[in-house]
Amino acid sequence: MLNGETAAVAYPELAVQTMARICVEAEDSLNYGDVFKRIMETAPMPMSLIESVASMAVQTAYCSKATLVVVLTRGGSTAKLVSKYRPSVPILSVVVPEITTDSFDWSCSDEAPARHSLIYRGLVPVLSAESTKASHTESTEEALELAIQRAKAKQICKPGDSVVALHHVGTASVFKILTVK
């Protein structure tokens, strides 16, 4: 609809502004608690471990009145699962590049997972620089801190807000509630 209106009408900017207002009002009228319950009713049981953690991160964000969900991901699948459960807040999908090496070649994953996440509802992709920290824990904390700083710069969150963070520690998936400083 918007394509035809902006191409053929004398007021394309007004058409886009009107459509944006309609979208904002439609989003504001949703009861995300009910939407989450309906999605959970149709979710496959038993859930995979990562899907279970993603759904619980959304429920935690809803219950704790978080203003943002931050997902550290390599390929984007975890962030897409969080999007499936329709949180009422934005999802900052922080794509951390994966550096692989054999004895002769080094390679680093590209930005494709961030680009692909643009089609999913609520995902805001961010590319993260690979950390030079010695341990995985230090690099995870650094990536979370940089993600929250970026979200503050984009005015997605502000100091004092609660943020739900979802990431991997070894083979375990972890989510936690952080307070923005």
UniProtKB/TrEMBL annotation:
Assembly notes: Homotetramer.
Signal peptide coordinates: none
Coiled-coil regions, chain positions: none
Gene3D superfamilies: Pyruvate kinase, C-terminal domain (3.40.1380.20)
Taxonomic placement: Eukaryota, Viridiplantae, Streptophyta, Embryophyta, Tracheophyta
Keyword Kinase: yes
Protein name, entry field: Pyruvate kinase family protein
InterPro entries given in the database record: Pyr_Knase, Pyrv_Knase_C, Pyrv_Knase_C_sf
Record key words, sorted: Kinase, Potassium, Pyruvate, Transferase
Keyword check for Transferase: yes
GO molecular function, one term: kinase activity
Superkingdom, natural source: Eukaryota
Ranges for domain Pyruvate kinase C-terminal: 51-171
Pfam families, A to Z: PK_C (PF02887)
